[in-house]
Amino acid sequence: MPVTYLELENFKSYAGTQRIGPFFNFTCVIGPNGSGKSNLMDAMSFVLGVQSRDLRSSQMKDLIFRPPGVARDETLSAKASLVYVEPTAKKEGDAVAANNDTDDEEEGSPQKKKSRLSKKLPKGKTIIFSRVITSKGTGEYQVNGKSVTFKQYEAKLASIGVLLKARNFLVFQGDVESMARKNPKQLVEMFENISGSSELKEEYEVALKAKEDAESQTIFAFNKTKEHKSERRVLKEQKEEAERFHTLLTQRTTLKTNHFLWTLFHIHSDVQQRESTLVELQESLSENAAIVSEKEALLKTAKKEASKARSASSSKDKLRIKLEGEVDKLQPSVIESSEAISALRKRVATDTKAVSRIEKEKASHGEKISELQEEIQEYTEKENELQTEYDELKQSESGGIGSLTEEQEVQYEAIRDAAAVASAVPRRKLQSAVRSLESARAKAAKVAEEKKELTGRKDDAGRSVGELTARKETLEKSLEKTNSELSTSETTLTTLQNSLSSYQTKRATIESQLETIQNTLRQAKDDRRKGKDEERILNAIAALKRHFPGVKGRLVDLCRPSQQRYNLAVTVAGGKDMDAIVVDGKKTAFDCIKYLRDQRIGTATFLPLDSLQTPPPESTERLRAMAENDGRYRLAADVIRVSNDEYRRAVLYAVGNTVVCDSLDVARDICFSRTGRGGNSDRIKAVTVKGAVISKAGTMTGGVTKDDANRAGRFSEQKLDELRSKKESLEVQREDLDAQVGRGSGSHTAKAEDLRNAIGNLRNKEQYTKSDLEYTKKKLKEQVTLLKSSKKTFDKLEKQAVEAEEGVTEANDAVVQSRQEVRDVEEEHFAPFREETGISDLRAYDEAIGKAREDFVKKRTDIREHLAKLTAKKKYEDEKDFDSKLAKAMKKKTNQEAQLEEAEETEENLLSEVSEIKAKLADAESTLKQAMETEQEKDEIVRDARSLLKEAEGDYNKVTKTKNAEESDLMVLRQKLHENLQKARVDEVELPMLDAAEEMDEDDEENVEDSQASESATRSSSRTRSSNSQSATQESTVTYSEHFSQREDSKVAKDRKEAGKVDFSNMDEDLKIRRSASEEEKLRKKFESKISKLTQEIEGIAPNMKASDAFDTMTEKVKETVDGFNTTKEEGRKANEVFNKVRKARSHKFNTAFKKIDAALKIIYTDMTKSSKHPLGGNAYLSLDDSDEPYRGGMKFNAMPPMKRFRDMEQLSGGEKTMAALSLLFAIHSYRPAPFFIMDEVDAALDNVNVLKVCNYIRQRSDDFQCIVISLKDMFYERSESLVGICRDVSSSASHSMTLDLTKFDRKPGRGGEKRANEDGENEAEADPPKRPRTIAAGAE
């Protein structure tokens, strides 16, 4: 028992200084809850270096005892000390003697008790470990009273086998359960602390980082070297390109020089030739100018003679014109006289006819008057006869009343008219009264009729209101009931329809999908199976995915062609890369390769996504654009679909810029003819949908092997597996849907149909009821309104009826009164006439004679009006005077005849005067004709002179035009010469020049030519030309700049001088030969074509003019980077060696501990789970994820209790977990055994059987290590060697301890007793159990 005592001073609940112990090899600490057992555990942990934050306190001051209710004492400090005795090796004889002494001693005496206790305490070197908490809350470590540092303290503890990091001496309450719940990483971390490999962790990390840094530096140096070599290669190409650029420039300069020399040579020759020709033309022009002047003088003389002849002819012509004017002046008078004579003759004829007509009218006038007299006599007789007939009629129709004479009738008419005028006012009054009476009667009748009708309507309205009110109430109740039923039915139907629609949609979708899947499976024959190699590869990939999260899977499993017809093409395009495994980075790829090698699974190709080289995006986009325009092919990458966009990079690496073509012809056209069409020389790889391949090198491969077909079928196999699983899922879904909906009359469809019919009937009923109710309400409202208005109107009509009767009575009285007034007024006029004629009743007389008289008066009026017309006509005829009218017409005729004779005499005089003037005019015309003939002769002479002048001017103009043409051509040549010289200067073409002596000779020649040209120009400028056409012709030839037309111009002279300096001696003789215009054009185009091609080629080059220097510099850099790469490579090798050394050391420590602990675990767990029923016990083992570097992976802890199948730790019961965890703890302790083991209530989750097993195991191992256990189970602590009881003083709230040695109660063999406990732990009670006090378990203080 290495730990003998624990001394505490003001630590937590332990007030003052207390010494707890001694502790035996198997000591149990017991006491009630809250007594301070856990504080004792904390004290031991505190002394052994556990931090205060792990002891249920936030700071060290919280560990100092503070009595409740007492002021806080800041001077208090705390201390905990553990007395440890290093055990010494015992001799066998000493052990036997000690046993004998113990057997011989008797119980009871204190001396013997002390002696026995001293004998049980270990003998050896004592070490006191202490930790002090000062009043300021700081901590201090002490060993044997001497202050030490934490590292020294930790080292001292480690020297006795106590490891603070591993805590191989301590098991807190709950640590057992946490041990069972630890995940693989936590288990590995714990084993690292136990094995000591964690001590190398920092060194391992440093070495790993140094190795990775060295690798990255090596890769960086390699990439840098590669980059510099690439740059040097580019610079080399640029250098060669720059040299080629200089060569092309030289060629173009030479070609331009030859072109300019050829052009300038011929232009300069043409200029010299044109200038000499121009001098000759100038002399010819002077001669022609003299001839023109001579002809101009002759023409001038002829013009003078012609002018004199023209003047004489003009005077004769004026006389002729004067005579013609006089004739023309008299001619209007002659015409006017002729017209006047003609008019007078017509008037005389008209007057003669008028005299004859008047004489005829005078002869027929008497007959017309006789006819009118006879017609008047006839109508007079008709009037008398009409009067006689009327008189007779009066006598016969009067009937004894009497008759009136004609005069009396006239008088009666006058009286009657006067009576009518006098009675007009009372008659109008009478008419108004009659109309009022008729209106009053009509109104009274109307009111009576309306009253009768209104009475009937009022009664009908009353009956209707009652009937409609009752109908309205009935309809409202019916409508409310119908709406309620309709709402319920619609809700139910909507629910059913939604359910049915969802069912139909889902089932139709499922059926469609199933049919599609069935067809696909049927077409594929569904008979493919995976081979053993495929299964092995898939299993290997699954293992890699479990161990390395960065493994994505095979590329063939991560992608799929967009259409099935591309399966073979994609397989051929991707090649072996389709079987490659896609990983996230190079590190994962290295780890996977190592795993495959260690597990001896096989080989595989990996595609790390972070370092794959893919085609440049520019080339890919260019090919994609070409494919879209062509339409016969497409990029292989575009016909492949990926499940995740991050895998697109792997696809691009596998297929690159390969294109998929519909046929081999298309592929051949693209690969072999694309350069000629597109102008791009980049070669591409083409694959047809049938598997044919045209590589970038131009090689063609055709046909499909069985292996290619099988690999292409993997895309289909993936699809078939998915389809089979999807088919099963869809069939289950269909069955579930059918079960939900049901069949037959109880199905959703039948219910929905019944509900639709019911809803249709209810809607019809609702619509009909609503319509009827609206109509009823409307009619009821109308009838109520009608009833109310009828009542009001009836009252009004009764009043109106009374008023109408009164109105009729009043109007009738007014009519009677008005009639009487009319009679009175008429009686005043008719009474005297009645007395005079004796006719008593004039009205009766009017009734008898009135009609006949009206007819008589009308006929008599007609006759009299006709007689008046005849009388007036006869009077008009009697008043006519034919004699005076005839005398007047005769007189007018005589005057017209006298005027005619005078006009004829005037006309004769005018005609004789005109004849005299015409004779004079004929003489003047004869004289004019002779003068005109003389003028024509003179004009002919002028025309001949003008013709000669024109001919001379034509010759002059012809020479002038030739000269102007030559000057124009010379001007063009001079301009071309100037332009070519200017262009040569602009293009920086250096033309070969003559020496100084040659230049001087040419200058002298030019001066002579200039003097000759100036003299000829002076001679030509002295002449004057009057021809406008000539000047116009000269002006029209100027089309270029004026200075090119002047030989003495400074620019012309300068160009001529500069052209003369050019050395044409080295020029090819072939270029000096004069050619035709077409040949010259061809030669010029040839020059320009060559220059253009060279220019295009030069412009297509972007030379780096500093490439040569940069190439030399880069060569030096490449040499430096290669040396640096070799250096970093050597450093990486050394770092890798260091890392491997540390890795092996760390792995060795870890694996050594693991193997030993695993072996101990199996034994301990088997021993702890053995029983009579299960003599073999259970099985527990540990497994590593990574055996090479176990600290980088995880660790699994599995336990199989007896007769239980394998299950995860989480699925075990609490007791099974505790037993497994304790077994692991004991196994760990066996590897790095501490001299003591402190456990806090580790038996909490154990049943009695397991408690006995644990207790027996501890007793068996008590000789190997000291075990101090806090327990509340009597079955556990009664088998310990000693008990430490903890109790609490209620008054001071402080904990106290007491110790009980249980070994004295053990029965010895040979005294009739049994062993203290059986080995298998099954028989908890014996026939003669040991006599032990059990009151301490209850915590009796």
Question: Which features characterize this protein?
Answer:
1341 residues; 29 helices; 6-stranded antiparallel β-sheet; 24 strands; alpha/beta; 67% helix; 6-stranded mixed β-sheet
Account of the 3D structure:
It is a single chain. With 1341 residues, the chain is α/β, with parallel strands linked by helices. It is built from 29 helices and 24 strands. The protein has a 6-stranded antiparallel β-sheet. Strands 8-21-22-3-23-24 form a 6-stranded mixed β-sheet. A hairpin with a 5-residue loop joins strand 17 (693-694) and strand 18 (700-701).
Give a nutshell description of this structure:
By secondary structure, the protein is of the alpha/beta class. Helix content is 67%, strand content 9%.
Taking the alpha carbons of the first and last residues, their distance comes to 26 Å
Count every helix, treating DSSP H or I runs of 4 or more residues as helices. Answer: 29
Q: What is the strand tally?
A: 24
Mean pLDDT: 77
Strand content: 5-15%
Based on secondary structure, the structural category is: alpha/beta
Q: What would you report as the Rg, rounded to the nearest angstrom?
A: 77 Å
What is the helix fraction of residues, given as a range? Answer: 55-70%
How do the strands and helices of this protein lay out in sequence?
Layout: E1 3-11, E2 14-20, E3 26-30, H1 37-47, E4 78-85, H2 92-104, H3 110-120, E5 126-133, E6 139-143, E7 146-148, H4 150-159, E8 170-171, H5 175-181, H6 184-195, H7 201-397, H8 406-422, H9 424-523, H10 532-547, E9 551-554, H11 555-558, E10 559-561, H12 567-574, E11 581-583, H13 586-599, E12 606-608, H14 617-630, E13 633-635, E14 640-642, H15 648-655, E15 659-661, H16 664-678, E16 686-688, E17 693-694, E18 700-701, H17 706-741, H18 748-837, H19 842-878, H20 882-986, H21 996-1022, H22 1028-1036, H23 1050-1061, H24 1069-1072, H25 1077-1099, H26 1107-1169, E19 1179-1184, E20 1195-1200, H27 1214-1231, E21 1236-1240, H28 1248-1261, E22 1266-1270, H29 1274-1277, E23 1282-1289, E24 1294-1301
Helix pairs in contact: 5-27, 6-26, 7-19, 7-20, 7-21, 7-25, 7-26, 8-18, 9-17, 9-18, 12-17, 20-23, 26-27
